[in-house]
Amino acid sequence: MKQYKINLPNRDGAQLSLVSEDGKLWNFEVDDKHKYVLEHMRIGYMEDNKTIDFVDPAGGPFMRVHCLIDTENILEGIVFLDDKLSLVTSKICIKT
């Protein structure tokens, strides 16, 4: 099975990435030396205090719903699934 991976920039030098099996639902992955990057991640909620608006791992990057994750993916939502924070993306449609 193919695994997709997006490497993320991080000011703390962590090898931080998003990994996915389907290219739509992503989970954070970080090297063992920098586990705190995810342990101290900020999570912000919309006014309803239920819907997640943004995530901000220690050292970044700050990611808000509807932002670009990379050149191909837009962050559509952030949810907890099986006690794991997951990011839901969609592909960018470029009209020519």
Specify Rg, calculated over alpha carbons: 13 Å
- In helices, the fraction of residues equals under 10%
Strand order of the largest sheet: 1-2-3-8-7
The share of residues in extended strands comes to: over 45%
Low-confidence stretches: none
Coarse shape:
globular
Counted by DSSP, the helix tally is 1
- Record field, number of beta strands: 8
Major beta sheet summary: 5 strands, antiparallel
| Distance, first to last CA | 32 Å
Q: State the secondary-structure class.
A: mainly beta
Question: What letter string, H or E per element, gives the SSE order?
Answer: EEEHEEEEE
What average pLDDT do the residues reach? 94
What's the structural domain tally? 1
Structural notes for this entry:
The strands form two sheets. The protein has a five-stranded antiparallel beta sheet, with no helix packed on it. A three-stranded antiparallel beta sheet has the order 4-5-6, with no helix packed on it. The mean pLDDT is 94. The chain is mainly beta and 96 residues long. It has one helix at residues 36-39, and strands spanning 4-8, 16-20, 25-30, 42-45, 52-56, 63-64, 73-81, 84-91. Helix content is 4%, strand content 46%.
Features:
96 residues; three-stranded antiparallel β-sheet
